[in-house]
């Protein structure tokens, strides 16, 4: 297998921060699809008409090297829908989160829960359900929607807007703050011995985004840790049976004193966000995540929301940007694992 090369390039479209030059191979035959079976124990926070039902998921890689899938839309809302149509062509349940940057943190732990429900993560504005989101809900026949975050993220009138679209059940998971919301989401995850943790500080949210895909694939909880009050995060993980925790990011995000509150913690931390994401991805591969089916998501401020929507796909995730460190991390990944299928989301564009 020839190793793809990565080169520096100028942005070529309005939203792109990176263009990767990889050999693109068109698959010779259509692959099969993933089977998604909702986990309904513990009982989900929203009614699920398909518990125990097999749903069609994303197309499986067919083994062709250097395969590229591009998932993007005209804006962040349409990009989330493009990801949903790829990963969740059949769905009875959807998870709806704020698509506004200031509320990004509310949904960082939503990806793992969404996948256990065989549900995509879709985006909305505080006081509106965008047309792309509404079209997916109608066309897919979604019956139940779980809102994540408080009224300041998705207003109290959001359920009425969803019911007007034919949604029969709308529920909400929200805590007093971002950390409590994270723990509330994790509480609906199945029992696991391994879990994930990351900082909930605005400057370090990108670490949680990198961990969401692997946590979703493995069906493991992802909680946010507050440096000044880490004990609740540790207690939440232990309640789920977690005896070992992978912490995404270095001490600037989760301080050593906070780390000590988590069950048997160890870090996956690099010198920057790109190296950290690569280390998180590498650890996920060691835990059973496919190294030949990876997501490339924007790792730059203003486009992080695309990585949020990609979490439920359940894939190792590399964050990319316009810095040399990003190119170095991607190059190192391919040197180690080669290239199978790469799915580029949002502002990441792959140039064949």
Automatic annotation (TrEMBL):
Keyword Signal appears in the UniProt entry = yes
Q: Which UniProt keywords apply?
A: Signal
State whether keyword Transferase applies: no
Descriptive protein name: Putative cell wall binding repeat protein
Signal sequence coordinates: 1-29
An example Pfam family from this entry, by short name, is CW_binding_2
Q: Which residues form a coiled coil?
A: none
**Any transmembrane segments, and where?**
none
């Amino acid at each position: 297998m020839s190793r793809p090369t990565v080169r520096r390039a100028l942005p070529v479209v309005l939203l792109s921060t990176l263009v990767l030059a990889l050999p693109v191979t068109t698959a010779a035959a259509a692959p099969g699809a993933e089977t998604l079976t909702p986990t309904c124990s513990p009982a989900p926070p929203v009614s699920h008409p398909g518990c125990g039902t097999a749903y069609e998921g994303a197309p499986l890689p067919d083994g062709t090297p250097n395969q590229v899938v591009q998932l993007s839309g005209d804006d962040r809302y349409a990009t989330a829908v493009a990801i949903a149509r790829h990963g969740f062509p059949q769905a009875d349940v959807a998870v709806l989160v704020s698509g506004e940057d200031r509320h990004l943190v509310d949904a960082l732990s939503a990806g793992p829960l969404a996948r256990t429900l065989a549900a995509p993560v879709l985006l909305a504005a505080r006081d509106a359900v965008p047309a792309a989101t509404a079209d997916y809900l109608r066309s897919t026949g979604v019956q139940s929607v779980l809102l994540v975050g408080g009224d300041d993220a998705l207003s109290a009138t959001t359920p009425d807007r969803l019911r007007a679209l034919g949604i029969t059940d709308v529920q909400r998971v929200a805590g007093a703050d971002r950390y409590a919301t994270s723990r509330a989401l994790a509480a609906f995850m199945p029992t696991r011995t391994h879990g994930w943790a990351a900082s909930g500080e605005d400057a370090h949210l990108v670490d949680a985004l990198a961990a969401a895909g692997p946590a979703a694939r493995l069906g493991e909880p992802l909680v946010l840790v507050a440096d000044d009050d880490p004990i609740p995060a540790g207690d939440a993980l232990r309640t789920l049976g977690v005896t070992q925790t992978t912490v995404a990011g270095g001490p600037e995000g989760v301080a050593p004193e906070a780390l000590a509150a988590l069950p048997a913690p160890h870090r996956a931390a690099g010198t920057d966000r790109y190296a950290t994401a690569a280390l998180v991805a590498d650890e996920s591969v060691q835990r059973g995540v496919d190294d030949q089916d990876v997501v490339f998501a924007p790792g730059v401020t203003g486009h992080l929301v695309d990585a949020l929507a990609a979490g439920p796909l359940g894939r190792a995730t590399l964050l990319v940007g316009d810095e040399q460190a990003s190119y170095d991390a991607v190059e190192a990944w391919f040197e180690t694992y080669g290239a199978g299928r790469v799915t580029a989301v949002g502002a990441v564009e792959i140039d064949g």
